[in-house]
Amino acid sequence: MLSIPKAHPYPITKLVWSDGSPVRVNELEANKAYIFNYLFKNTPNFLINLGDEKGNPIRIEVTLYTAMPPLAEESIVFRVKDYVKESIPGFGSPYTVNPHGSIVAYSAICQHFGCPYLAINFYAPGRSVPLARSKIVERGGVIYCVCHGGAYDPYRGAAILLDPPQRPLPFVILREENEELYAVNIVGATIFGKFCNTCGEEGDLIGSISVVKEA
Questions:
Q1: By CB neighbour count within 10 A (0-12 exposed, 13-18 middle, 19+ buried), where does 209 fall?
Q2: pLDDT of res. 71
Q3: CA proximity to 97, closest of 167, 150, 168, 35
Q4: The dihedral sign for the CA sequence 94, 95, 101, 107
Q5: Is residue 99 within 8 Å of residue 46, measured between CB atoms?
Q6: What averages of pLDDT result for each successive group of 10 residues across the chain (215 residues)?
Q7: Taking the CB of residue 81, how many other CB atoms lie within 10 A of it?
Q8: How far is CA 41 from CA 20, 30, 191, 193, in A?
Q9: What whole-number distance in Å separates Cα of residue 44 and Cα of residue 37?
Q10: For the chain, how big is the Rg over CA atoms in Å?
Q11: Domains of the chain
Q12: Sign of the C-alpha dihedral computed for residues 142, 143, 145 and 150 taken in this order
């Protein structure tokens, strides 16, 4: 008999440094990627303060819908346009990500075959991408997976730049309180390999804090 994993509430998880001090928005360097786990102890995510080639933070606006259409719907394979505002296909109530202008958080597990960080990584603008198979990504400013060459645009809601991924990366909702950051939910596509985002053993959930490290 098929056993369906139990779904749990999304935890409210404070982001902290290795010494236990809270991660403050003004401490995140532009164009540097950080790694933290959420919702589970083994599901890594990128935390990025997006910047331009000169290292200046870029305020972006992305509308991400709270539910994705079925994988068979071709509309989820979309291409980035020449402007910063981007709506990710889906249905349900839109959620405007980015509580602090330039700070975003995405799943660090590739949506194609489940390759995790370090195979998938963020490359800042101007940073060369190893094994880049397209001029679209070779100058950086992308999240790129060396396993099969899939690429996402972190400036536009992790939109797909290069196949074979068929869905954008899941987006971690961040909440800011007194310049401290909390992970509170995940929207968009389901985390790769999960029946649902919160399906699993309760003891595997990350809990009330998650340690942030430099990627």
A1: middle
A2: 47
A3: 168
A4: negative
A5: no
A6: 76 97 94 96 96 85 59 38 43 56 93 95 92 84 94 87 88 91 90 89 93 96
A7: 10
A8: 17, 26, 13, 15
A9: 4
A10: 16
A11: 13-118+155-214 (2.102.10.10)
A12: negative
Scanning the structure block, which residue is given the tokens 């690429």? 151
Whether the Cβ atoms of residue 110 and residue 150 lie closer than 8 Å to each other: yes
The reported pTM is 0.86
β-bridge partners, 10: none
Q: Which two tokens stand for residue 117?
A: 């960080």
Conformational region of residue 179, where left means phi above 0, alpha means psi within -120 to 50, and beta covers everything else? left
Rounded Cα distance between 39 and 102, Å, is 22
DSSP the chain: -PPPPPB-PPP-EEEE-TTSPBPBGGGS-BT-EEEEE-SBTT-EEEEEE-B-TTS-B----EEEEEEPPPTT-GGGS----SSS-EEES-EEEEEE--TTSSEEEEESB-TTT-PBTTTEEEE-TTPPPTT--STTTTTSSEEEETTT--EEEGGGTTEEEESS--SPPPEEEEEEETTEEEEEEEESSPPTT-SSTTBS-GGGB--SEEE-EE-
Structure tokens that stand for 171 in this block: 């987006």
- State the Cα–Cα distance between residues 102 and 135, nearest whole angstrom: 25
